[in-house]
DNA sequence: TATCCGAATTGGATCGTTCAAGACGGCGAG
DNA sequence: CTCGCCGTCTTGAACGATCCAATTCGGATA
């Protein structure tokens, strides 16, 4: 190939000035149609692509979004992040943004990474997955007016910043109602210790659905850290204590454990997991499915809304999960 | 906050010229120590960070590496990509590079994405995970002298381009030898249809280890597409046909299926999977473990070697897997 | 016919960095 | 003493895009 194709090359080829080419790209409506077509033609013929670095230097915007990739803790639930990232990349691409990855081992380092990314790469925005109570990261970003969205509600202050989340309570409530409709009454719940917003939310959905049906949930739930072994242990405990006929779990890991515990029961105890991970699909575990692709898309929507100065867009999005029915329910 | 801190700000503050500051950053050895310290001091005091866009415009290098994130097919093996990406991000970071994500639904689009990424972002290099026979993507990149590394050997021409891979044959051979040492003789293998380099490699390791021990592998192997159900089906078939006492599988998905098929056998049939996914760890499945973090690190090494013009570095790296022993073996 | 108007186009300046070339002082050799 | 060299530092130009102000041009108006 010959020389690098710049805006000047295109301008010469279309016999117009650089500025006109720039206008065709950034403000097509102010260019006469005939001229515009000639320029567009030259762009295609020459295979011109606007140099992002030069554009960024002038405009101060990089069209880059940062997302964190975490060390895989538990591959079962880890695939959630994986799928979310994929969706994010796809939607961001369509909106003209690219996704840059970063990692950090703790909050302090993560914040110093923000500083670095903002300083050297002039990132346009951040996407955080999951936040804690009193998260120092969101505080840092908000303080500096850096655009960001979280996937996951800030449980302590819902209006603190834009977020996208999936209504976990609605998911577990729906699953519970499905089981109630199938005739179950002793429907147990295995979840996480109180205090995590997500876990409490999921438990609340189950409890509300039972109340709604006039069933007393007392004694029907157990709490533990996430994990297959933990799920199995608690399910055995439940079987011995209250002999539930069905169980809703806060994660697929817990549900897989429960599945191992109920093996051989007759009639089979129904099990419903959460996240609809590929493992659940593989073993036929019914599970509550989060619309991760859509969640990612709405994150990008929110960000572009902020970045393009459109303050009309809502800043909070709560999506509804669906129930993936399989032979365990 | 005040003005943006540029190299000129630092220069004024340290009472030197812009170029001297630039030299402190890029060629410290040509600056007198006293001056260097004064400049470094100013940099720290002011919190200066070199603007990547400006640097890129001058040097033509973006310090950005592209990696593809694929739609999760099978969450069990999908976590491999996940872990690899994490390692890549971490090591690239340490080497002063950042990882940019992209997706593409087919080869043609992927190539056009390359074109776009190179044209607009001036990417420094690509990391491809897995290649096919006669891969059009590597051909395209090689033709244009774009630096890239693949994680996975190009099976048809080992010298075609730099790669990092894990010795699958050594992994299955090691697993097979472990089983032989435990007294097993009828050690089966469940793998993928001939033709995929990875699958053939893994099968060869098992076959060689058996030959080495004087065991005839005839009839002891089965081939199928990847998946839990497929693994279960083939394992039942093997049990009925040749009653193996152990089985080595080409993936954890197949091994999980095999595990379901052998339930209740006495003495228990040993099962060893491949990839040591978190699911394997969770259910206690023995599995061959790929050093993904190291693989990612070596990919970055190879790339920086090429990018920094160091042609001394080897261009092919073959890493040894290890055997994660758990109660299924 | 002269004047004015607004749409379309033009040239110059600018963003922050690195490259290329040159300036400056001190030192040793001729 | 002069010359050239070396180490150190400075100055001007360039990368490729966008912003800004100025200019051209065709057509409408007086």
UniProtKB/TrEMBL annotation, chains A, B:
Example of a GO MF term: DNA-binding transcription factor activity
Coiled coil ranges: none
Record keywords, A-Z: DNA-binding, Transcription, Transcription regulation
PROSITE patterns referenced in this protein's UniProt entry, alphabetically: HTH_LACI_2
Domain spans labelled HTH lacI-type: 5-59
Pfam families in UniProt: LacI, Peripla_BP_3
InterPro entries: HTH_LacI (IPR000843), LacI/GalR-like_sensor (IPR046335), Lambda_DNA-bd_dom_sf (IPR010982), Peripla_BP_I (IPR028082)
PANTHER family in UniProt: HTH-TYPE TRANSCRIPTIONAL REGULATOR GALS, LACI-RELATED TRANSCRIPTIONAL REPRESSOR
UniProt-recorded name of the protein: LacI family transcriptional regulator
Species in which this protein is naturally found: Micromonospora arborensis
């Amino acid at each position: 190939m010959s020389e690098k194709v710049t805006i000047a090359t295109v301008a010469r080829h279309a016999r117009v000035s650089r500025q006109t080419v720039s206008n065709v790209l950034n403000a097509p409506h102010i260019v006469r149609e005939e001229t515009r077509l000639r320029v567009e033609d030259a762009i295609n013929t020459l295979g011109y692509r606007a140099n992002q670095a030069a554009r960024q230097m002038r405009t101060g915007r990089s069209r880059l979004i940062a997302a964190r990739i975490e060390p895989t803790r538990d591959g079962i639930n880890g695939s959630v992040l994986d799928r979310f990232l994929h969706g994010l990349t796809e939607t961001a691409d369509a909106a003209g943004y690219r996704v840059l990855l970063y990692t950090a081992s703790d909050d302090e380092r993560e914040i110093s990474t923000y500083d670095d990314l903002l300083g050297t790469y002039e990132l346009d925005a951040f996407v955080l997955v999951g936040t804690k109570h009193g998260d120092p990261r969101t505080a840092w970003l908000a303080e500096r007016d850096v655009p960001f969205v979280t996937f996951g509600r800030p449980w302590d202050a819902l209006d603190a910043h834009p977020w996208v989340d999936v209504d976990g309570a609605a998911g577990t409530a729906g699953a519970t109602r499905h089981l109630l409709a199938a005739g179950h009454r002793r429907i147990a719940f295995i979840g996480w210790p109180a205090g995590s917003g997500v876990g409490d939310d999921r438990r609340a959905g189950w409890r509300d659905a039972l109340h709604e049906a006039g069933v007393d949930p007392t004694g029907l739930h157990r709490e533990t850290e996430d994990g297959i072994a933990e799920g199995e242990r608690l399910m055995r405990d439940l079987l011995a204590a209250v002999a539930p006929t069905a169980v809703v779990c806060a994660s697929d890991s817990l549900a897989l454990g429960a599945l191992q515990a109920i093996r051989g029961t007759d009639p089979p105890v129904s099990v419903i997991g959460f996240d609809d991970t590929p493992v659940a699909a593989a073993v036929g575990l019914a599970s509550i499915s989060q619309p991760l692709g859509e969640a990612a898309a709405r994150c990008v929507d929110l960000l572009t809304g902020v970045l393009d100065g459109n303050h009309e867009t809502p800043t909070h999005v709560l999506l509804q999960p669906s129930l993936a029915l399989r032979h365990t329910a």
